[in-house]
Amino acid sequence: MATLSGNKIKNTYQALVKFSDNGNITTSAKQLTDGFGNNSPMWVSTTQVGIGVTPEAGLNLHVYGDAKIGSNLTVIGNLVVEGSTTTVGTDTLTVKDPLIVLANNNTSTDAVDIGFYGKYAPAGTTLYSGLFREALTGKYRLFKGLQIEPTTTVSVSGTGYDKADLVIGNIETNGVVEDSSLFTFSKDVIINKAGTTKLTIDNVTQNKSIELECTSLNNVLNAEGDMIFSSGSPIFKYTSSSFEVISVDSTFGGDIIANGDITLSNSSKIKWNGTSALEIYDDGTNAIKIETGSSRILDVCSDIFQLKAGDTNNNDLMLTHGSEGVSIYYRGNTNPGVKFATTSDGVDVTGELAVSGTGQSSFGGQVTIPLTPTSSTDAASKGYVDTQVGANNELSEVLANGNITDGTDIVVSTGDQILLPDGNSTNPAITFSGDTNTGMYRTGSDVLNLGVGGSDAISMFPNTVYIKPAGSTELTISTTGSTFAGDVDVNGNLDVTSTASDAVFLRSSQATTTNVYITNTNATSNNTANLYFAPANNIGGSYIKSTAIEDFSSSANRTADLRFAVRKDGTFNEAVIIDSDGNVGINNNLPTAKLTIDNSIATAYSTTSYASTPANSMLYLNNTNGGSNTASLINFRTGSGDGVLGFVAGGGINDADFVIQTDGGVNGIERFRITNAGNVGIGTDSPIGNLNINGGTGDAAAQDAIETFTRTSSTGNVLAAKLRLVDGSATTHGDLKFQVKTTASSAENDAYYTDAITIKGNNANVGIGTTSPSGKVDILGLDLNIGADNGAPTTRTNSTVKVGVITSPHYTTAEENFTGMLLIGNTTANEVILGGGTSTYNSATQIKFYTGANSTTVTGTERMRIDSSGKVGIGTTSPSDKLTLDSGQMRLSDNYGIRWGSASTAIYGSSGAGTLQIFTNSAERMRITSGGDVDIAPVSGSSVIDYGMTVAPQSGYAQIYLRANTTSTTYLQRFYNESSGVLQNVGNIVISGSSTNYVTTSDYRLKEDLQDFAGLDMVSKISVYDFKWKRDESRSYGVMAHELQEVLPQAVVGEKDAEEMQSVDYSKIVPLLVKSIQELTAKVDKLEQECKCKN
Q: What is the pLDDT of residue 1008?
């Protein structure tokens, strides 16, 4: 509450704090203001406080904007931060909770990495390191060196990303340890688990060997020690420099790969699956034994390899080696001995050598078979050829004197020959069993013939081939040229191969027409005759095809088309078709016009790239001449009229213009042009802007440049408006007119148009309703109607708020306007607002009011001003308050005052009584008397209050009187605190007829968790001093607040060395004193009792 004095009301009124509606505190938050109406940033209700904002429902304290707390902040409930970034600017962050929750709001998909990171700059480059769970794989990663700050994910492929080292104690895992190149253990690795215990090294997916490496076994095993894989006896023992297997019953579940020795004792076995199904051992005879079950299958000694059959016949196989070579023994009960032996000359085989199979057996040397056939037809000869057969030891005699009928292939080695007789056409040298007069034979030196049915078919000479019949030259193929004596019918392929560029000539001696026919003799529909072109490797690259659309078998008056196809990416595509009507289709096999072009262009049209790029064009016309004024044109003609569409080059082929010409009588006239700069000209070939309409040369109306806008109504009337450039000032300037058609008609007539807007060419004046404007804007008419629906600037409807705005350009930003006058047609009144009032335009920062001394004054004098902060100055150009009057007074009539809203809240003054009264809720709350007393209380209408507070100025000080109009005990003042939205009484000033009591709330219903305490111990820790006050050097007894705060913090307000001084509530010490007295009393009673006992 402000302290008022007897000064002017202006100096005290502004110090009062009130609500903006001048009412009392309610359940709805209201803004606090000062006496002049200046708003504070605080909103207050019975349950809420807002700073900088009206508090939202459900919030007891709502702060908007930045906030800073100079000391500690204790949050009893939950702290919810809804911003995007929370920064803790302390050196240490302490969290009492045992678990920290991250990504608590991630409830949709597993798409974010969860963890934490920090940044560091070891060499001036900011790097990031941290630990996170990767959403993509579900694995936890420890990283370092990342140069890209993580967002919702960590870029494992980002610049500098590296896996960080981890130094830990024990490792406990339920799965496998993956994706690491090196693990370093400085402690013991213990595998000790109830039940089955395994150490699994799985490197199958990488297909690499697994190595167990110790840089110093002495350091690991302390010179000698055991490697134990399970409880009980060790499997391996390390002694000095090697491992020794010392357990005869040891089981391994995977491969054992060793780069060094694995030493086993005699008779120690290597078993598979822990059984005798397969065993390897040494029985002490320096031989490796391999057994399956109870039977031995293999013995390996120093020079013997014995494979045992394991049967009663002892059909064993033994392999030995010596100085003579390798021998294979058969040790069976029947006919044992050496069966196969290598010697210095070859191989000796004892017994029969059987070769089976359907393939060939090849021998690089001589194969001698004991059996000697007596003739080439001997049955023993089947399956082989012996050099003893025949008188001259030649294979030809075997073939000449007998047949090989077992189907065996004849293989002749390189350099050998098969010699055959010449034969003839009826008895060929090479023939067929089912057709003996068809085959191959020789008729002379260097002549080879093929005969069919006893007649010559083909005769082959070194450079020439003759094809049937014998002795005829109907078809001769020669290196010097080929001839045809008649027709050649080719039912298959005709392959003409030549190294010359001119490979094939089709010649005729006809005097008129020479025809080349590619004929399909089948007359049904959809048959084709094709001509293929193969540019390389006999693969067709393109073809020309004619397709029969109808069945040609009944008549020659049928329909066919012609198609041209090319190959792309291994597939033929019919690129051009000419149908029977003469229509041409490009990429269209059913053309409906004389030229139909289809193309699928995937490249989207770009406004910044060349539209003439051939790959993006449907039709590409290119004049490669490149000279000035050369053109690529398309000509049109109908009847005797011509038209031209095309591009005309300017200074070169890269700056062509698009033009359109129409028939102008004798010659064509250019009507339209788009220049390479993008300018469009109508009636001109040199447009000077984006759109240039040229009416022509001359001063008559026929040369006006006109742009016309039309539409036709449902009644048939043509609605029209024109933009017309006319000769305005004796051929020197042109006027621009906007004309509208004001006569309803379907016909066109200049008389039907009215000039709506005229812009003069000589001075740029604008006329509305006049063609001779005298100012920049000249409106001929009675009304200037400005406005539209509020919030809908393009509509104007009934029963809506209308808004009209008069604006002016901004000083610093010319394209922005500010509001000069705002006209509002409202539901209750029509308003004129100066300086703004909407968010559409900038508001005026000042509004000034001028008046002149008389009606002839040209320059007036400023009388009043409203500045940018809303301050009003009368008689001054720099108001310092909401209302500033300079060189004058604001006068109110006697017993009149200032009211807020209704008359329930007001200030009234009386010059006769010399008083100032303040009313709220229609009741007087404060009165300043003529003597300067300030009475705050309900008053009865006199200057003396019955009860309440009076502030009375005295010489050098002020007195405050609190009165109660009663002699019984009553509350003079009560103190409340809010808890969970409920006001609770925490203390009172209670008076009676003769005394005043200061009490604090201590009701048992407000307390819980009652505990005993040692009062004497606490009191003994409180230091009490006899000290002197610095201000007036008076002495007193008391404590140091900060020392007491360490013992009894609830008795101290404030912090040591803070801006506000600490204070002490000595009443809080009283319970400690009472407790101490009780404890001392108990001790005295005990001592007295002890003394009585002793006495």
A: 92
